[in-house]
Specification:
Blueprint: H1 2-11, E1 19-20, H2 24-28, E2 37-38, H3 41-46, E3 52-55, H4 62-71, E4 75-78, H5 86-99, E5 103-104, H6 113-123, E6 130-138, H7 154-157, H8 162-178, E7 182-190, E8 207-214, E9 219-225, E10 234-241, E11 245-249, E12 255-260, E13 263-268, H9 292-307, H10 318-337, E14 341-342
Parallel strand pairs: 1-2, 3-4, 4-5, 6-9
Antiparallel strand pairs: 6-10, 7-8, 7-14, 8-9, 10-11, 11-12, 12-13
Helix pairs in contact: 1-9, 4-5, 5-10, 6-8, 8-10
The protein binds nicotinamide-adenine-dinucleotide.
């Protein structure tokens, strides 16, 4: 993710003043176009040469690095999951708010134009009273027993793997688009590959399914998986209400499906027909596809605008990261106890 962050930072006009990795040599070889390599993240944070830190390290390092950066008075972009437990994530959100510092989390799917369009249509009442929110986030990159990653190790990735890694994105997107709040979950998790690399038994889940309810009284379901053959990064969200339904598929981000009793149609991103809320995230004319880099660039550009004191709607901040961490913890608790769990 360091490369994605560095590219977006440059696009937003930043100078990459320094980079740190697990060791000095790694930082020197990072190839991010940084002016300087630091021996450690601590050295980078304490250097006095940085305005904003992008934290793209493994999950267990997010909380210590971000808390240190905030104490040093630095703005922070910290990758999701914000922390490996809900209490640490809440503390990070509290410290950022107390310090009045810009502190954001790359829940970047919020920055697709068609997501903004869906949000705007729901806000203006097109969907009616929301009844059902459902979808999935499916990948296959950890399908086989020899597929391995630091995320598998609970010490590095945290006690939840699949849900924390991708379920967090889905829950943030669902709450963002609907302006509703998941209030309770009933979850199941399963390990499909019990041994990977040096980890045996694997304790972090390969799949998780969640039933949930929301503050407005809607019900929902979510399936997340890193072992679904053929699915690469298939985040799918569908919202149904008393008047209409809307559906968004992250692998087809130029499209938004809209349905009602009279029929359905698929809207293609076109700045000339999009709502004012979606248009800023649609810099290219229709038919010139935008994608992941565009939404990531928009997220970083909006964070930097906030750093200059400008308001940007829908910027995912540490409080949103803490929210996702609380849902994640409720999912694990529910799966362990077999009970509905509030969040
Ligand atoms: N927002 C998104 O869309 C998105 C997508 C993918 C990953 N992520 C998040 O980004 C983070 C990184 O994931 P990744 O897939 O790029 O992992 P990765 O393993 O490819 O990269 C992790 C990097 O952290 C460095 N690192 C390890 N220990 C360090 C230390 N002590 N100090 C400084 N750097 C250290 C490693 O050298 C490596 O370069 C994760 O938290 C992940 O959840 C977010």
């Amino acid at each position: 993710m360091g490369r994605v962050h560095a590219r977006a930072a440059r696009m937003a006009g930043a100078t990459i003043a320094g980079v740190a990795g697990s060791r000095l040599e790694k930082a020197q070889q990072a190839g991010l176009g940084a002016a300087k390599a630091f021996a450690s993240a601590d050295e980078l944070i304490e250097s006095g040469e940085i305005d904003l830190v992008h934290i793209c390290a493994p999950n267990h390092l997010h909380a210590p690095f971000a808390l240190k950066a905030l104490s040093a008075g630095l703005a922070v972009i910290c990758e999701k999951p914000l922390a490996t437990d809900a209490a640490s994530a809440a503390l990070m959100a509290e410290r950022a708010a107390e310090a009045g510092l810009v502190a954001t989390v790359p829940f970047v799917y919020r920055f697709h134009a068609m997501v903004r369009e869906a949000r705007q249509r729901i806000a203006r009442g097109d969907v009616g009273r929301i009844s059902l929110i459902q979808g999935s986030y499916l990948q296959d990159w950890l399908l086989r027993p020899d597929d391995d990653n630091w995320r598998v190790d609970a010490e590095l990735g945290g006690p939840s793997r699949t849900f924390a890694d991708i379920g967090s994105h889905w829950c943030d997107l669902a709450e963002f688009v609907t302006a509703d709040r998941i209030t309770g979950v009933c979850a199941q998790v399963a390990v499909v590959q019990p041994a990977r690399g040096s980890t045996s038994p694997v304790v972090t889940e390969d799949v998780a399914t969640v039933q949930f309810r929301t503050a407005s009284g809607a019900v929902g379901t979510l399936a997340t998986s890193q072992v679904s053959p053929g699915r690469k990064n298939r985040l799918f969200l569908e919202v149904s209400g008393t008047e209409a339904s809307l559906a968004f598929d992250q692998e087809q981000p130029e499209l938004l499906w809209v349905g009602d009793r009279g029929g359905s149609r698929t809207l293609m991103r076109d700045p000339t027909i999009l709502s004012a809320a979606a248009r800023p995230y649609s810099p290219l004319p229709a038919g010139h596809p935008q994608g992941y880099h565009d939404c990531f660039d928009a997220f970083v550009a909006d964070t930097y605008a906030a750093l200059r004191g400008e308001h940007r709607d829908g910027l995912p901040v540490f409080a949103d990261g803490a929210r996702a961490a609380a849902i994640c913890e409720a999912v694990l608790t529910s799966a362990r106890t077999g009970r509905w769990t509030e969040c």
